Recover the amino acids of this structure.
């Protein structure tokens, strides 16, 4: 299925850009007239994915993070967050609740949170090459809602 609309943004892995990515995703999703709960879920999932890219992808340097958003006719929103940082050696281990490589200040719940708010989460990663997280959520149909 071809997307009805899409956008791609690239930004440096500065923690200040997490809020930018979250807001940009919310603005893009607004054209689909989501519920407030759906909008909150999307913003939280984007926040977790971008924070992971910043904190774990580039722990000691600045790098590039890409945010791609696509919407489809069936009201599905696809969000892809990609970095070209250090990658994840064991994706299945990283998906376990409470697992973190980010030190004591990190909860290890990023992927768990993404999975709880989205319909599907796919993670591709190669050590030394980066990580790509693709999330999908089908938004509810609302009377009078826009496509």
């Amino acid at each position: 299925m071809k997307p009805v609309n899409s956008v791609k943004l690239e930004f440096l892995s500065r923690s200040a850009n997490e809020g930018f990515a979250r807001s940009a995703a919310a603005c893009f999703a607004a054209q689909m007239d989501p519920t407030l709960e759906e909008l909150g879920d999307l913003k939280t999932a984007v926040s977790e994915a971008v924070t992971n890219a910043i904190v774990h992808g580039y722990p000691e340097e600045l790098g590039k993070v890409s945010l791609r958003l696509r919407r489809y006719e069936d009201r599905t929103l696809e969000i892809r967050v990609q970095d070209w940082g250090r990658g994840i050696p064991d994706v299945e281990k990283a998906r376990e609740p409470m697992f973190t490589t980010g030190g004591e200040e990190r909860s290890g719940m990023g992927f768990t949170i993404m999975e709880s708010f989205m319909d599907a989460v796919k993670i591709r990663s190669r050590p030394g090459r980066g990580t790509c997280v693709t999330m999908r959520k089908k938004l509810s149909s609302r009377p009078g809602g826009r496509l």
User: Anything to note?
Assistant: The first strand starts at residue 5 and ends at 12. The helical segments are 16-30, 36-57, 91-94, 110-117.
